[in-house]
Amino acid sequence: MKIKVGVVFGGESVEHEVSIISAIQAMKNINEEKYEVVPIYIAKDQTWYTGNMLKEIDIYRDLDLLKRFAKKVTLVKSENRFFLMKTNGVFRKEVTDIDVILPIVHGHGVEDGSLQGFLETLKIPYVGSNVLGSALGQDKVVMKQVMKDEGIPCVDYVWFYDTEYQLNTDEITKKIKKLGYPVVVKPATLGSSVGISVVKHEEDLDEAINDAISYDSKIIVEKAVENLVEVNASVIGNYESQEVSVLEEVMGVDEFLSYRDKYLGGGKKSGSKGMASTNRIVPARLDDKMTSEVQEMAKKVFRVLNLNGVCRIDFLIDKKSKKLYVNEPNTIPGSLSFYLWDKCDKPYCDLLDEIISLGLRRYKAESKKVRSFETNILSNYGGTKGLKGSKKI
């Protein structure tokens, strides 16, 4: 019997369309002899849909058409089984059962632990990092604080909330000036390089910060690395063991690997293949010593942040000083970084099989942990003696 995999994608996120691209790539590469794919699309209004037409990219050109023919559903648990239920007013009808969830979501409200928390509440097996790992991977400030405590090198930075900037603009500007220009301004909890600006002069800082504030309430400003080389490594595993891919050296047309570089093909109209279409050099042009350092650091970040499944760790290297910095992890990377594992003789279908197995293995291990007590401490509760004030309430 095939394992039914619910592939969840979309969501209320500025990376909504990126998620669709990544999910369709995965659904077309999964081993259909072993798995039955059930697409689960979360629209921007957070309504859930399913239907075989959701496996095709063309349906997303007309969202009204999609909503007309796809089934509106909810995910429910009943007697330790999991179902997609079709909703129609007060009536609900079972559509299909689900064995495991494969989240292929990017960004705020889905990748950041929100979706994972919902799945944890249902106790349904799912693939990828848990709530804590997902939350750490999304918040660029907290992740750096955790990594710094573990001795993982990060660039110098300043962070603040939107209201703090509005009230203390001059004070925050002075802190940023101490970093030294150029700096990189980022929304703290977004991905895919959305809302990021490189600022070379102080007079351009306010505009960049306000642009970032339009996306997020928490902002981080980092010292830009000079003589920059950007390299990425993908990691598969769990806290027990990790495997690292070949490294890629990313080549953006902008000053950093931007949203346009990643998903719009530098402005071309030929359509997007997600991160798989980004200009890159594989393997990265690093010597053996630096390659080994990056790969070992990638495994350390993966373990420290409690990640699971497949992720991508992004690095910044000053090629003149040979200094290595961890930029950020991507807990559900664009295209699931399959293009890096292809270079390691691990086809995409094998990659998907491996991360699904990791999710199921974690579920079985967690099921053996003590989460509650059989004893009911209220069985001998002394009636209403402890509720003397209840009548007054």
Kindly describe this structure.
By secondary structure, this protein is α+β, with helices and mostly antiparallel strands. The protein has twelve helices and 17 strands. The strands form three sheets. A seven-stranded mixed β-sheet has the order 6-5-4-3-2-1-7. Strands 12, 13, 14, 15, 16 and 17 form a six-stranded antiparallel β-sheet that branches. The longest helix has 20 residues, at 348-367. The model is unreliable at 262-271 (pLDDT under 50).
Distance between the termini: 57 Å
How much of the sequence is in beta strands?
Answer: 25-35%
Shape: globular
Low-confidence stretches: 262-271
Looking at this structure, what is the CATH superfamily of the largest domain? ATP-grasp fold, B domain
* Beta strand count: 17
Number of helices: 12
What is the CA-based Rg, rounded?
A: 23 Å
The CATH topology of the largest domain comes to: D-amino Acid Aminotransferase, Chain A, domain 1
| Top CATH class of the largest domain | Alpha Beta
Number of domains: 3
User: Assembly type of the shown chains?
Assistant: single chain
| Side-by-side strand order of the widest sheet | 6-5-4-3-2-1-7
Instruction: Please estimate the helix content.
Output: 25-40%
N-to-C order of helices and strands: EHEEHEEEEHHHEHHEEHEEEEHEHEEHH
Structural class designation: alpha+beta
Q: Any guess at the CATH architecture of the largest domain?
A: 2-Layer Sandwich
